[in-house]
């Protein structure tokens, strides 16, 4: 089995759990789906050298994507105008 197939199998096995983690962090099913998809794109590009625990590694990647999304959300937030 090649590396990509191995990775895809682990990702598909853990997809529901990864989506649940993302949903708990982001509070939105749509954003959770986006985070899991973005995590797959990153994971697919990075390779699996040195990965001993695929489930933990996948969870870490999804969590980091979610944190980036939360930071981005916070940076876009506008401050309410005091002149109103």
TrEMBL record:
<dbReference type="InterPro" id="IPR007627">
    <property type="entry name" value="RNA_pol_sigma70_r2"/>
</dbReference>
<protein>
    <recommendedName>
        <fullName>RNA polymerase sigma-70 region 2 domain-containing protein</fullName>
    </recommendedName>
</protein>
<dbReference type="InterPro" id="IPR052704">
    <property type="entry name" value="ECF_Sigma-70_Domain"/>
</dbReference>
<feature type="domain" description="RNA polymerase sigma-70 region 2">
    <location>
        <begin position="11"/>
        <end position="75"/>
    </location>
</feature>
<dbReference type="Pfam" id="PF04542">
    <property type="entry name" value="Sigma70_r2"/>
</dbReference>
<dbReference type="InterPro" id="IPR013325">
    <property type="entry name" value="RNA_pol_sigma_r2"/>
</dbReference>
């Amino acid at each position: 089995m090649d590396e990509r197939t191995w990775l895809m199998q682990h990702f598909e096995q853990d997809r529901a759990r990864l989506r649940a983690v993302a949903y708990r962090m982001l509070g939105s099913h749509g954003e959770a789906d986006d985070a899991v998809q973005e995590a797959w794109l990153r994971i697919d590009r990075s390779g699996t050298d040195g990965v001993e625990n695929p489930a933990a590694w996948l969870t870490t990647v999804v969590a980091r994507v979610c944190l980036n999304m939360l930071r981005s959300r916070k940076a876009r937030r506008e401050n309410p105008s005091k002149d109103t």
